[in-house]
């Protein structure tokens, strides 16, 4: 690409951005030049696209749906990872190279996510739990360590209770076990709003990614309304994303300047079945699922990873698992260890080293006790 052509492209982008999006020209120019530098040097490691070295991507037909998953080398006991809502197997890219050294790692896309079958109208913990129960029985075929995040963390507990012969250890990463249950989720206004905005913006025939970002925010002391992302920042981020898709279709989610968690997050928002979020706020996801009865049936060791949380007088729980709910789990499950980490909800994605240490320390502790 010639220097003159680059200057022309930059000029057109700046004019369009300033006129239509009203973004200050200096920010647009800076963003475009940084973008072009990143195209040349392409420093992203790892990329959102591609399969990790030593892993292969496979399909499992349950007879009702197709579950997409990746499998690593057989280097030890089976370790199954279950992604959370709005997450695919790629969310574990930063941690599976470490675990694959000593375990036989599997990461499965939950129905409605990634390349697994989308089943609008058929999302519940009991339905999805049966998917994974069959996967453990017919694919893994050995008692496995089962680790999940968020809704996947609830599924890890579901499996420990309802597929006990297939689960040796359950790792529950910040499960919204009580907070996301219907009807309590309606009281947790911040959590409810997140899924409500997802349904409204991403459930359209053409997903409104910009609208979704412009509705994201956090509470601010002294104010009832959320402090939203400034529109120009949201437009800049989404504009950069759209620009990247045009220039690098083979790496459309590897957005310049964005951390891996942000880049892969775009993929999740663009591709998951939004009816999963709708099922979360209309009660279908938790229909027929009793948290207390589930916990009472668990006999295997459980590691409960509790992420950072707070409670706002207007918006309710900021996070997924508060101390009261964690205490309920500890009071019911006999063999449980609670590890609190100073990290946001998706620990393995936001702070992979913290997650790896918490899990490895726990598994080593159990090994020494045997």
Task: Map the helices and strands.
Elements: H1 3-21, H2 25-41, E1 56-61, E2 66-71, E3 78-82, H3 96-99, E4 104-108, H4 125-140, E5 144-149, H5 151-162, E6 167-173, H6 189-202, H7 209-214, E7 217-219, E8 226-228, H8 231-247, H9 260-271, H10 275-282, H11 291-296, E9 302-306, E10 310-312, E11 316-318, H12 323-332, E12 336-340, H13 347-350, H14 352-369
Parallel strand pairs: 3-4, 3-5, 5-6, 6-9, 9-12
Antiparallel strand pairs: 1-2, 2-4, 7-8, 10-11
Helix pairs in contact: 1-2, 4-5, 6-10
The geometry reads as: globular
Helix coverage percent of residues? 40-55%
Question: What is the CATH topology descriptor of the largest domain?
Answer: Rossmann fold
Give the termini distance in whole angstroms: 63 Å
Uncertain runs: 1-8
Share in β-strands: 15-25%
**CATH architecture field of the largest domain:** 3-Layer(aba) Sandwich
Number of domains: 2
Fourth CATH level, the homologous superfamily of the largest domain: Alpha/Beta hydrolase fold, catalytic domain
| Rg (C-alpha, Å) | 21 Å
Query: Strand order within the widest sheet?
Result: 1-2-4-3-5-6-9-12
Average predicted local confidence, pLDDT = 90
Q: Give a short account of the largest sheet.
A: 8 strands, mixed
* CATH first level of the largest domain: Alpha Beta
- Going by helix content, strand content and strand pairing, the class is alpha/beta
Can you count the beta strands? Answer: 12
Order of helices and strands: HHEEEHEHEHEHHEEHHHHEEEHEHH
Spell out the key features of this protein.
370 residues, Rossmann fold, 2 domains
């Amino acid at each position: 690409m010639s220097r003159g052509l680059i200057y022309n492209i930059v000029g057109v982008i700046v004019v369009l951005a300033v006129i239509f999006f009203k973004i200050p020209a200096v920010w647009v120019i800076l963003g475009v030049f940084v973008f072009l530098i990143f195209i040349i040097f392409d420093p992203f490691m790892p990329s959102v696209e591609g399969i990790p070295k030593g892993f292969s991507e496979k399909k499992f037909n349950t007879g009702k749906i197709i579950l997409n998953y990746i499998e690593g080398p057989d280097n030890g006991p089976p370790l199954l990872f279950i992604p959370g809502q709005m997450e695919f197997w790629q969310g574990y890219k930063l941690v599976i190279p470490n675990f694959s050294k000593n375990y036989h790692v599997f990461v499965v896309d939950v129905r409605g996510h990634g390349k697994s079958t989308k089943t609008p109208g058929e999302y519940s913990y009991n339905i999805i739990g049966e998917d994974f129960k069959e996967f453990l029985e017919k694919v893994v075929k050995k008692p496995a360590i089962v680790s999940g995040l968020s809704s996947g963390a609830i599924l890890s507990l579901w499996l420990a209770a309802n597929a006990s012969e297939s689960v040796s250890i359950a790792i529950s990463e910040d499960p919204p076990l009580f907070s996301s249950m219907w009807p309590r989720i309606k009281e947790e206004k911040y959590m409810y709003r997140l899924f409500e905005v997802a349904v409204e913006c991403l459930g359209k025939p053409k997903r409104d990614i910009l609208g979704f970002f412009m509705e994201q925010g956090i509470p601010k002391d002294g104010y009832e309304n959320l402090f939203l992302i400034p529109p120009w920042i949201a437009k800049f981020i989404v504009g950069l994303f759209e620009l990247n898709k045009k220039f690098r279709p083979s790496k459309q989610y590897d957005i310049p300047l964005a951390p891996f968690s942000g880049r892969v997050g775009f993929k999740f928002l663009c591709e998951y079945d939004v009816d999963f979020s709708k099922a979360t706020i209309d009660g279908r996801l938790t229909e027929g699922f009793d948290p207390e009865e589930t916990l009472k049936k668990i006999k295997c060791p459980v590691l409960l990873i509790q992420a950072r949380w707070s409670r706002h007088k207007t918006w309710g729980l900021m996070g997924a698992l508060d101390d009261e709910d964690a205490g309920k789990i500890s009071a019911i499950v006999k063999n449980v260890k609670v590890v609190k980490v100073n990290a946001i909800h998706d620990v393995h994605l936001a702070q992979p080293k913290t997650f790896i240490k918490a899990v490895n320390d726990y598994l080593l502790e159990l090994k020494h006790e045997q």
